[in-house]
Structures are given as structure tokens and as C-alpha cells.
């Protein structure tokens, strides 16, 4: 019976788990090459969170420290386990209460379970799209701030509750004063209307009434 060479056994044991740094990445093939000292591996797949009916993608980059797990010590059959902190890329938090993701462009998404707070800082745009309903509920106040405008586009906009505006109300470019109430329609300030107006009811005027055209009452027009 031929004995298994000890040198081959040592090689396989040494290659079972190896430290390394990503040297290059092929994102179309989802493979990376890893540098382990003076040796650079062949193209190897990296371990992801899900790769079945549900699929996740968060690709590693050159310079990340990783572990290579090689079955039977054969690095050509290895897989790359990413996500090992190093001096060049230290941990972004120092408490077990915070889950935080920090991106290269400055974006930060985190949840602090001690403060019960979810926060997202995004240097660009945010888009949420759903084919069904979107519901947002707040136990107290909800604040929406915009640097320029807020657009609401829908066949119908329904506000349940009192609507208070601190500024004027602009309807298609026609500004309606600084104070405007809708209980029984109360308006303070100057009022300009371009177009026809029909009133079903009484009109009370406390002050002068200036008419530049013909004033008609009933079916009689004054001379």
C-alpha cells in the first residue's frame, strides 16, 4: 500500500482556508481573483446571501480582504467568503445596537435598536415604486420638506382633517390671498376673479360697490 505523501497532505491542509485580498473582479461572470501573498488564484465565485429563487447582489471590489474556502485543499474549487475588516477599511460602527451600511459615495443606511430609529442619508435621488398601495403611518407628526416644490399627481387628492396653510393659496397661477378658510368660506384680503361668477343666495356688501360695466338686477337694466 502506497503511503500518501506528507508534503501533499500539508499542501492541502494549508489551502483549506486562506487569507487573501481581491486582486481583480469579473462582474459579468460573478468571479474574482484573490492574491494570497505572491500567489494569485484563478477566477473563483464569491459567497452571496441568496442564490436561488431569491437572488441577492452586492459585488466585492479590488482591495477587499477575504477568506478562500477550498474543499479538500484544492484552491481551483474554492469559494471566496467576503467581508473581513482591515486597516484600510475598518468597521463603520462600534456598538451591537447599530446595523449600518456605508457606501463609497457617502450614502448611509442604518438602524439603531437602542434609539428605535431608522435613518437613511442619500446624496442623490430616492425612488419608491409599487404596483399596489403605499401606506406610511406616524404615531405623532409627519414632516415633509422640499427645497423647491412638492408635486401631488392623482385623479383625486383627499385630505381628511383640517388643512392649514401658512402662506397663500395659488390655483393655476391665481393667488388667493394670505388667509383663506373653508368652513363657510371666509377670505381676508384683496380678491381678484377673472371670469364669470354665479351666486345662488344672498350677497351682503358692507362698503362701497364699484361697477365698471352694466349692473343688472332681475330682468331690468338701469339706464
From TrEMBL:
<protein>
    <submittedName>
        <fullName>Baseplate assembly protein</fullName>
    </submittedName>
</protein>
<dbReference type="Pfam" id="PF04717">
    <property type="entry name" value="Phage_base_V"/>
</dbReference>
<dbReference type="InterPro" id="IPR037026">
    <property type="entry name" value="Vgr_OB-fold_dom_sf"/>
</dbReference>
<dbReference type="InterPro" id="IPR006531">
    <property type="entry name" value="Gp5/Vgr_OB"/>
</dbReference>
<feature type="domain" description="Gp5/Type VI secretion system Vgr protein OB-fold">
    <location>
        <begin position="20"/>
        <end position="85"/>
    </location>
</feature>
<dbReference type="InterPro" id="IPR013046">
    <property type="entry name" value="GpV/Gp45"/>
</dbReference>
Amino acid at each position: 500500500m502506497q503511503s500518501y505523501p506528507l508534503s501533499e497532505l500539508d499542501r492541502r491542509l494549508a489551502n483549506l482556508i486562506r487569507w487573501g485580498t481581491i486582486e481583480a473582479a469579473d462582474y459579468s461572470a460573478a468571479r474574482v481573483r484573490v492574491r494570497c501573498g505572491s500567489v494569485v488564484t484563478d477566477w473563483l465565485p464569491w459567497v452571496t446571501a441568496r442564490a436561488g429563487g431569491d437572488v441577492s447582489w452586492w459585488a466585492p471590489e479590488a482591495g477587499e480582504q477575504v477568506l478562500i474556502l477550498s474543499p479538500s485543499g484544492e484552491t481551483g474549487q474554492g469559494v471566496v467568503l467576503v467581508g473581513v475588516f482591515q486597516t484600510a477599511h475598518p468597521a463603520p460602527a462600534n456598538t451591537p445596537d447599530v446595523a449600518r451600511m456605508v457606501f463609497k459615495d457617502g450614502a448611509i443606511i442604518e438602524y439603531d435598536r437602542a434609539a428605535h430609529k431608522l435613518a437613511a442619508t442619500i446624496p442623490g435621488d430616492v425612488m419608491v415604486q409599487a404596483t399596489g398601495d403605499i401606506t406610511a403611518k406616524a404615531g405623532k407628526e409627519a414632516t415633509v420638506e422640499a427645497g423647491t416644490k412638492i408635486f401631488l399627481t392623482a385623479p383625486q387628492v383627499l385630505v381628511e382633517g383640517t388643512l392649514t396653510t401658512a402662506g397663500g393659496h395659488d390655483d393655476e397661477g391665481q393667488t388667493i390671498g394670505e388667509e383663506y378658510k373653508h368652513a363657510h368660506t371666509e377670505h381676508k384680503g384683496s380678491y381678484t376673479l377673472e371670469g364669470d361668477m354665479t351666486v345662488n343666495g344672498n350677497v351682503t356688501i358692507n362698503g362701497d360697490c364699484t361697477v365698471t360695466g352694466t349692473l343688472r338686477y332681475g330682468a331690468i337694466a338701469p339706464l
